[in-house]
């Protein structure tokens, strides 16, 4: 199967030396790419800025902003059978990027105007066709309700609900604890496990889904 996977954060520039971003390390998306390549899938990984080495046998496309990630996903989606969006795309960007480093001067406060970044999954839902789309939902409260809302709004085949407030789960750490939620109401709560093990479970779900369809 040909898989398109996204990983890491995006960075939204404020000036040439500053940006808005989040704590995503890329570990979850890279674990997925590694596990998928080890199973023999053809993997394209669209990665935000992270400090991880490129996974073996994976084509890595490096991007910085949400707009870059959207363009890369659109470009590579055509040749893929499934998309897994593990990236933590920044939802907001500074309305303007200053061409030169912003100076502090004497001011004690700074008000930033922010604009929404494109919602990648929503922007490409019309390109879905027979492809399988899997999203993640990073939540700190109302985990399953919020994840189900995103599952519907983003027209996904599966959402990986990720309570990022739990110790050992979510951003930066080597482990994760997630609930897999499907549109038919089926839910599978996984225990705390390595991100590689979460990736394997997700790929197992995908394999069953593809087998059922063919
Ligand atoms: O990278 P790590 O340190 O290993 O951390 C892993 C993780 C916590 C980043 C990962 O497990 C995770 O939860 N990724 C999704 C984070 C996120 O942005 O969730 P969200 O609930 O804001 O977004 C929902 C879905 O829409 C996600 O699939 C996201 O990729 C996608 N999205 C979000 C915003 C946007 N503008 N466009 C999108 O397509």
Please render the helix and strand layout as text.
Elements lengths: L1 E6 L4 E4 L2 E3 L6 H12 L3 E6 L10 E5 L3 H12 L4 E4 L6 E3 L19 E3 L3 H5 L7 E8 L3 H11 L4 E6 L11 E2 L1 E4 L5 E3 L3 E2 H19 L1
Helix pairs in contact: 1-5
Bound molecules: ligand PMT.
The site of ligand PMT has 28 residues, from helix 1, helix 3 and strand 9.
Number of spatially distinct domains: 1
The small molecules bound here are: ligand PMT
- What is the H/E order? EEEHEEHEEEHEHEEEEEH
Instruction: Supply the CATH superfamily name.
Output: CoaB-like
CATH topology: Rossmann fold
Biggest sheet features: 8 strands, mixed
Distance between the termini: 13 Å
Shape: globular
Q: How much beta, percentage-wise?
A: 25-35%
Q: Give me the oligomer status.
A: single chain
Secondary structure category: alpha/beta
Total beta strand runs: 14
**Based on the structure given, which CATH architecture is correct?**
3-Layer(aba) Sandwich
Provide tags for this entry:
globular; 8-stranded mixed sheet; 5 helices; Rossmann fold; alpha/beta; 214 residues; two-stranded antiparallel sheet; binds ligand PMT; 28% helix
